[in-house]
Amino acid sequence: MPQPRAGTWHDQRVPSPARRPAIAAAASARAPRGRIRWAALLAVLLVGLITACGVRLDLPPSPPPVPEGQDAVRQEAAIAVESLARYARSAAEQAAGETAESLDAVARDAEAHLTSLGGVWQPPPRPEAGETGTGAGDQADRDGDHAEGEDAHTAAPAEVVEHLEDTAAALLSHIDEVDGQMATLLTSVAVNQVLHARQVRAALDLDPPEPPALPEDPFPAEFGPEAAGLSRLLDASGYVAEVRAARAGGEERSRLSDHAARMRAQGAEVAVRAGLAATEDDPREPAYELDLDDLHGQAVRLAHARVPAWLHLVEPAAPEDRDLIAAQVLATAMSVYDVADPVPVLPGLDVSAGTEPEPAG
Fold first, then answer.
1. Binning pLDDT at 50, 70 and 90, where does residue 356 land?
2. 2: Cα separation from own chain's centroid
3. Backbone phi, then psi, for 177, in 5-degree steps?
C-alpha cells in the first residue's frame, strides 16, 4: 500500500512533530497580550464597582471654583451687603428711638439687596485630603463657626455709618467692570446706602456728609436717543420753576429763577449731546401743562422722576461714562429726598417710570 506523502490531507490533519514547537511558540507570544486586555478590563470594572458602592479613592480633592469677572463683583457686593445687614441689626439692638428705627431700615434694605444680588454663592463642600465621606457636615460646622464669629461683634451705630459709606463707594468703583444691568443695580444699591448713611448721621447728631462733587462738565460727551425723557424732564422742571418764580418774591423768587435757568440749560445740553436738539425728535415743548393748584407738588414729582431718568442711562452708557451718570443719579437723589423721608429700597428702580410732562393744552 502506498504511503501518504508530505503535504497531503492526512499530513494536514496530524501535524508532524517538527511543526508543534512553532505552533506553541506562536500561542505563547499571543498570551501576554490577552492577559493585558483582561487585566485592563478588570481594572475598569473594579473602579466602577468602587464608585457605585460609594467608596472614595484616597485622592486629593479638586479645588473649589472661584468666581471671576462679573461673578466676582457680584459675589463681593453680596458679601458686603450681607455683612452690612448683620452690623445694622446688631447696632439696632443696642440703640433706641429714631436711631434704632433708622438702623432697622438699613438692615431690612440690605437683606433686600442681598436677594436682588442673588445671595452669597457657596462652593460645594469638599473634604480635606485623607478624609472619608462627603465632608458636608464639617463644611457646615466651619460655616457656622464663621457666622457666629461675625455675629459676636457688637456694632456701634457710627460703625454702621462708616460701613454704609465704604460699601457704597466700593460698589460704584466697580460699575465699569460689569454689564449694564448689573451696573444699574449696583448704582441703585449704592444710592440707597448713601441716603441711609445721611439719615443715621442725622439721628446720631453727626456732621452731614459732603454733597457729591460733580466735575465742571458733568455730562458724558454723547448720549443716545434714550436720553430724550431726561431732557424733557429737565426742561419741564425749568418751566414749572419759572412759573413759580413769577408768583414768588424776594429771595424765593431769585432761588427759583436760578433753578429754572439751570434746569432749562441742562435739558438743552442733554438734547444737544443726544443729537435731538432742533430736530423733529426734540423732546422739549414750548410750554407744559401746569397743576396751578399745587405747583410745589408738581415740582417735587418732576424732581423725583429725574432719579429713575438718570439711572435709566447707566445701562446703555459706555463703561467709561458710567461714573459720570452714577454721580448724577446720586446728586439728584441727595437733592430730592429729604433726610427725614423714608429711603427707597432701590432708588430709581422701585418706582414707576415717573412723571411724564404733558405739553400745554
1. confident
2. 102
3. -105, 0
